Amino acid sequence: MNPFSSPTRLRDMIRAIRACKTAAEERAVVRKECAAIRSAISENDQFYRHRNLAKLMFIHMLGYPTHFGQLECLKLIAAVDFPEKRIGYLGLMLLLDERQEVLMLVTNSLKQDLNHSNQYIVGLALCALGNICSAEMALDLAPEVERLLLSRDQTIKKKAALCSIRIIRKVSDLAENLMSPAASLLKEKHHGVLIAGVQLCTDLCKVSASVLEYLRKTCIERLIRILKDISNSSYSLEYDIAGTVDPFLHIRVLKLMRILGQGDADSSEYMIDILAQVASKTESKKNAGNAVLYECVETIMGIEATSGLRVLAVNILGRFLSNHDNNIRYVALNMLMKAVTIESQAVQRHRTTILERVKDSDASIQKRALDLVFLLVNETNVKPLTKELIDYLEVSDQDFKGDLTAKICSIVDKFSQEKLWYTDQMFKVLCLAGNYVKDDVWHALIVAISNAPYLQGYCVRSLYKAFQTYSDQEGLVRVAVWCIGEYGEMLVNNVKVLEMEEPMTVTESDAVDVLEASLKNCSPDITTQSLSLIALLKLSSRFPPTSERIREIIMYHKGSVVLELQQRAIEFNSIIQRHQNIKPSLLERMPVLDEMTYLLKKASSSQANVSADKTSKSNSRASLKLPNGVIHAPATPDLDLLDLSSDDNPANTSSSNDYLHDLLGIGLTNTGSTDQGIAPSEGTDILMDLLSIGAPTVQNDILVSDAVSSNQGIAPATKPSSTTQVMDLLDGTPTNTSISDYQNPVHPSIIAFQSNTLMITFTFTKQADDPKVTQIQATFTNLSSDTYTDFVFQAAVPKFIQLQLDPASSNFLPANSNEEITQSLTVTNTQHGQKALAMRMRIAYKVNDQDVLEQGQVNNFPPGL
């Protein structure tokens, strides 16, 4: 007998394929078998049709094409006997999907089998429909499935419920037809039917608001009864898993209760007692019990529960944190991050346990625990929490040091109430993890020291002592070098010594030794070396006896392979040797850095970076599932695409790094404007040529180039001397500004956006103490007859505007203007009085499970915003 003829059994073909030693041999066997099956199909071989289809299913699972056998499935489904139908339906589910046009031919056979007297054939039809149902098939066969939901047979009920889930996912309009039969399933005793019925009710709630209200009225008592029955039932071998009675039914019921109780105080009140009972009686020794407890906690946090019940839920999560299983600890941390916004005080009680999880051996748990600690920090506990984190920073793994350092710096910067504590904590971080500190962190520390004259002596002495031990930490070296260059005389003369300080003696030569060591021993980082050279130049003016030694150290770098360092060495040497007359004024201490301007510029830069990341991520997504949030328009070309830029809006090309580096003299560029008719002096000309600043200019009206300061009025300055001009160029002395008086007018509401289906109204509120800030209340109204789900509003603003978007009141917008969604926006116009508000909006939502995207631009803001 030919081993590849139609009568060949399935097992013989499998043995032949498994006996192949190479892929080529396997392909040859499959090719011969497919040829034999094709011959049998062309000859209309009915006797071996079921055997051929079984072979085709196995070949399909191996990855070979089997489309030529799809019609054989339909022929077997149309057969009378159950064995042929079983193979036919199995092949239908495996070889076809809902996109195949062949499915149109099987609808009639499915309808006949759904009405068949044999329950097993009905079960086959329900299984097939539940797997490959298309929207057209759902509309045609929904009445039969609805009828089967009321069948007496438990198996048929269960399969009909699962098939109904597929139907409403394809055609949500059929949800109202199925809500009454679905609710009746919750009266059953069979757990399989209950699980299917609860899942059907859950899906119905997600697709229809009217069904949700109906199930709230009819199902809550039934769900409570189900939970009581399975919680109080005795041991049952059929349903018991690790000491918990049917945890799958537990979890399904709790999920449905969370949906029904969310945002509904009356429904939540009915659930409180049973949730407390489940949370108290369920054992947590096994994973099955932990799964039920976790779902119970999530339900408690999702409904309008009482404070006592939420405390009980948080305590359960606290026990989870001590569990030996990594997965349980991780999900507990995830849930606590949600709970901290609802029940902060209860989460605070587990602060010690959460801190222990920061030291966990699992990297994922470490990062999640660190994020939770950051959310727990407030003004009352910031000091002990920061101390714990800094203590752990010393012994933490290198891979975790970066994340831990960033969080500590954020906590200290956000919650510091006194400059002394802030500087002490930052110095500790710089000593332990200075190589992981980002540039904007040590930049902010320098600005803070500059604005605290009473701490400058303490800071420079503390940094000097820290440098002796931690000279390998790059961030510490940079801050220490800058402070010694600016406040070196305070270090040597012990100026402004605090009571807690220990006396110390530092000579001028010792201060120069630190800068020399930073040049020789530290990593070849151009920023650190540039800072060191500038600090040495300044000390040459403050410590004249060391001037010659400093010049020799500087000249050592005239042959540097780094052009920047080579140029600086030559220029600084020329200043020391040839320009003694202007050196004291040129190298004066840097004026106090404008802390508020720096913070605003830093915030603007970080928002631009975040918005760029969000934009790139959103562009890469294929779907329209966008989070509620603010899309800050990045720099060109995106601003032009959004039509939010104007020709008179200068591009701000400097970042926070550039701002501080310019003040430090690193990478100086000429930002001044020339004043025609006044010739520069000869000394200024030579010095500017030496410093490579560019063409000499004289400024009668000093221009402020900072984009943040451009909204302030500029007072005219008197004509400065040539030396003062050079100092302005080097040190960026701020000019006097004046702010005009502001009156608080009443601004009318506007229709910001309107289409055939949606209207958005803006209502404005101004704060008298801050004219730049405007509170906007956005109201969204659905003008169509369809309900909108997954409603998301996003806004983009120009770079001179800061926008904060609060969460919307809901993501569900009913039809026909029955209800409205509201959302609050806070807009800060940093160029108030000079430029009007501008905004571009994007609204995403779903209609009948189809994604819809609308866009628009607001050009009719009232004047004065």
Q: List low-pLDDT spans.
A: 1-5, 616-743
* Physical arrangement of strands within the biggest beta sheet: 6-7-8-11-10
**Per DSSP, what share of the residues sits in E-state strands of 2 or more residues?**
5-15%
- Biggest sheet overview: 5 strands, antiparallel
- Percentage of residues in helical conformation: 55-70%
Structural class: alpha+beta
Mean pLDDT: 80
Q: Count the strands?
A: 13
Number of helices: 37
Which radius of gyration do the C-alpha atoms yield? Answer: 37 Å
Shape: elongated
Distance between the termini: 91 Å
Architecture overview:
56% of the residues lie in helices and 10% in strands. The protein is an alpha+beta fold and 865 residues long. It has a 5-stranded antiparallel sheet with strand order 6-7-8-11-10, with no helix packed on it. The protein has a 4-stranded mixed sheet with strand order 3-9-12-13, with helices on one face. A two-stranded antiparallel sheet has the order 1-2. Helix 15 (265-281) runs parallel beside helix 17 and helix 27 packs parallel to helix 29. The radius of gyration is 37 Å and the shape is elongated.
Write the layout of secondary structure elements.
Blueprint: H1 10-18, H2 23-42, H3 49-61, H4 70-77, H5 82-95, H6 107-114, H7 119-132, H8 135-148, H9 154-170, H10 175-185, H11 191-207, H12 209-218, H13 220-232, E1 240-241, E2 244-245, H14 247-261, H15 265-281, H16 287-302, H17 307-321, H18 326-339, H19 344-348, H20 351-358, H21 363-376, H22 382-393, H23 398-415, H24 419-433, H25 439-450, H26 453-469, H27 474-493, H28 508-520, H29 526-542, H30 547-555, H31 563-578, H32 583-586, H33 595-620, E3 629-632, H34 638-642, H35 656-664, H36 682-691, E4 713-714, H37 722-731, E5 737-738, E6 750-754, E7 758-767, E8 770-782, E9 788-797, E10 801-805, E11 820-829, E12 839-847, E13 850-858
Parallel strand pairs: 3-9
Antiparallel strand pairs: 1-2, 4-5, 6-7, 7-8, 8-11, 9-12, 10-11, 12-13
